[in-house]
Amino acid sequence: GFDQSKIHDSIVSTLVKKAEDIGNKCVKLDNKAHDARDRKIDKILTSKLTGIPIMILLLAGILWLTIVGANYPSQWLTTGFLKIETLLSKWFLSTSLPLWVEGVLVQGLFKTLGWVVSVMLPPMAIFFPLFTILEDLGYLPRVAFNMDKFFKKAGSHGKQSLTMCLRIGQTKKLGTF
Predict the structure, then answer these.
(1) DSSP label at 176?
(2) Spatial separation of the C-alpha atoms in residues 108 and 79, rounded to whole Å
(3) How far is CA 97 from CA 89, 91, 100, 101, 104, in A?
(4) Which single residue of 1, 38, 71, 77 has CA 20 to 30 Å from 87?
(5) Where are the alpha helices (DSSP H) in 95-110?
(6) Is 66 in contact with 126 (CB distance < 8 Å)?
(7) pTM recorded for the entire structure
């Protein structure tokens, strides 16, 4: 009276039960409530009522801190690169080199390098360490878990939300968002 799906379910449940029995024989815990704090945190961070608002507030706070906090080092770097660019231009113009050499090396190469470093380095130096802290605390898997249902409707996975957070932070700072 068994069909193929019932046989499959029976085999899988037997294997899971056997693995559980082996695990219980091999692993002895002195403290049965060793993960009680993690379970409480999981209930708060992954619940339907509080998980999404906490995630939005936390990630919005990180984006805000990245955008606002990166302005000061960006200004410092821009000012520093501008001073160096001025000195390099004066030096190149004082030599007997053609003007196009100064244009290519200073106005082209150095100016572009200075702009890219002063715009991209400060947000990266703020955002990525904060994102790494969230990952080390185990929060990013919880975000992926919270977003999994929504992303499945679009044919994707909840982990894609983390990539989107990184992209939003990058485009917001560059002013293309």
Answers:
(1) -
(2) 17
(3) 12, 10, 8, 7, 12
(4) 71
(5) 99-102
(6) yes
(7) 0.63
Compute how many other C-beta atoms are within 10 angstroms of the C-beta atom of residue 147.
22
> What are the backbone angles phi and psi of residue 35, rounded to the nearest 5°?
-115, 20
DSSP 110-166: IHHHHHHHHHHHHHHHHHHHHHHHHHHTTHHHHHHHHHHHHHHHTTS-TTHHHHHHH
DSSP-derived letter for residue 48 is T
Read off the pLDDT of residues 109-163 as tens digits, 9 standing for 90 and up. Answer: 999 999 999 988 998 888 889 888 988 888 888 888 888 888 888 888 877 777 7
Quote the CA–CA distance of 73 and 86 in Å, as a whole number: 20
Distance, in Å, from the CA atom of 48 to the CA atom of 55, rounded to the nearest integer, reads 11
